[in-house]
Design brief:
Elements (H helix, E strand, L loop, with lengths): L4 E5 L6 E5 L23 E2 L2 H10 L4 E6 L4 H16 L5 E6 L4 H6 L7 E6 L2 E6 L5 H11 L1
Parallel strand pairs: 3-5, 4-5
Antiparallel strand pairs: 1-2, 4-6, 6-7
Amino acid sequence: MSAGKIKVSCFQCGQTNYYPENLGSGTVVCGRCRNPLPRPGDVVTVNSVQAINLISRSSLPVLIDFYSNSCGPCLLMAPVLERLARRRAGELMVVKVDVERYQNLAAQLGITAVPTFIVFHKNMERGRVSEVMSEMDFSLWVAKLA
C-alpha cells in the first residue's frame, strides 16, 4: 500500500484506485473512468450495474449486504456492517443492495431471504450467510473469506 493512501474500487468500472487517507471533504475520482470514488470505509448502497462491476472487476474482495428497509434483522446488522467497513477499509469493499429496488439482481444471485451477505473476490462467490450474527461472529466469518 502507498504511504498515506487506501485502496478503493470504483463502482462504475471496478478499477482499484488509491484514495488519500487525510483528504478531508474533497472528492477523488477514478483514474480510469473519472467518476467519483466512494470514501474508504463507507458502506454505500449500489445499483445492480455497480454491484456487477464490483463483483466482476474489483481486485479487492467485495462484501454485499442484500437488505430491505422494512427488515428488522437488516436494521440490526447495519451498524455491525458499518463498523466492519471502517475497520477493513482498504482491504474490503462493503456495499448494500436493496432487494426491493433490484429484484432482478437478487433473483439472479439466488437471494431468498434478507439479510443475506455474500463475499465475492475476483468474480467468484467465496461464501454467503442469511442470518443475524454477533459482531464478533460476523467479523470472523468475513475474515476467513476475504
